[in-house]
Design a protein that fits this description.
The structure is a single chain. The chain is built from two helices and two strands, in the order H-E-E-H. The chain is an alpha+beta fold. Strands 1-2 form a two-stranded antiparallel sheet. The chain is elongated. The N terminus is likely disordered.
Length: 64
């Protein structure tokens, strides 16, 4: 998203994305959106970023 779009409050839909969610049962739910035409390297970067952040937050906020 460009600075101009951020300033104007406009949202730009992401292309490929990975979403990891921990449900109430403690199971990981995975949502992967891979858009045609996206560079495979960008998809890989999204996956690694999602995994790294999810693992770090899961460790930090473990259920008691």
């Amino acid at each position: 998203m460009s600075a101009t779009e951020q300033e104007q409050g406009q949202q730009v839909e992401a292309r490929s994305s990975i979403k990891l969610t921990l449900n109430a049962k403690g199971e990981v739910q995975i949502e992967a959106k891979v858009r045609a035409g996206d560079d495979p390297a960008d998809v890989q970067i999204a996956r690694v970023t999602a995994e790294t952040n999810f693992d770090a937050l899961r460790t930090k906020y473990r259920a008691a």
